[in-house]
Amino acid sequence: MATKPKKKTIRSIPQERTPMPEQEPLVRAKNFEEVALGYRVEEALVEAERCLQCADEPCVRGCPVGIDIPGFIRKITEKHYHGAYDIITDTNLLPSVCGRVCPQENQCEGVCTVGQPDTRLEPVAIGRLERFIGDTAIREGWANVPYIEPNGLRVGIVGAGPAGLACAADMAKAGCEVVVYEAFHQPGGVLKYGIPDFRLPNDKVDAEIRKVEALGVRFECNTLVGRLFTIEQMRAEMGFDAVFIGTGAGYPSFMGIPGESLNGVLSANELLTRCNLLRARDFPNFDTPLQPGNHVAVIGAGNTAMDALRVSLRLGAESVHCIYRRSKTEA
Q1: In a domain, 119, yes or no
Q2: Same domain (yes/no): 100, 175
Q3: pLDDT tens per residue, range 98-143
């Protein structure tokens, strides 16, 4: 006689999330390969079992795009990985990217029932599971490109960063003809120029962009809107019914203190763009030079500052210092 599966409770769940394989610190400090290596199948299955499948689904409310998180995790426990991919990409076409760099700790994982303070447990590793499915889809060549009935509307998008890519995918799935204009020579925006390969490999970004292209989205790079044509011209002369402006953070902020214009002083934006997008780390095989110096100080302690510190170390700096006006716990 078959027995019913035992219902999971907080008491039955492992306290810690399943560890993710990663490069050893002394090894990764000398290369630009990805640090976190991602879950293997067996690790993803163990972590997926930590999900309680809550009826009220706080994680879904915590997700900015409303992914059916319990649904895709349930598919993982059933080993139906393509089904998990279908659920995720119903609202998010960039799971490999978002699984790596979304601030899950403040969103879905931050409200996970398992990880609330009174449980003394770590939240379910939702981002790692999303990444597992996204990477599996890339490796297996999965793509969700259903026939979409054209609605006759044209949408122009300024900027091919994460906001522009997400908007382009949603508009294309709604049946619009979509053209994305990008000032740089490659689409991707901050995903390409601002986040180093050791956190978000460029090949994963490119694979996600190809999925957006497969929906019929056209990218026009090396196109500086405002110089070649204006937003008004896009509406009045180029036939766009709507324009989405996703130009990103733009110029870096400086402190307005003496010495900011001296040689050897760079914004983190310039350092990361030269290293990531223009491949200065591979000079002279690529054209862009970069000389960060032997002793580097980075002012600030946010994500961008951490990336600048880690890049400087990998570029061969003898010493790297983080200078911050608040305490370490406030960083």
Answers
A1: yes
A2: no
A3: 999 999 999 999 999 999 999 899 999 999 999 999 999 999 999 7
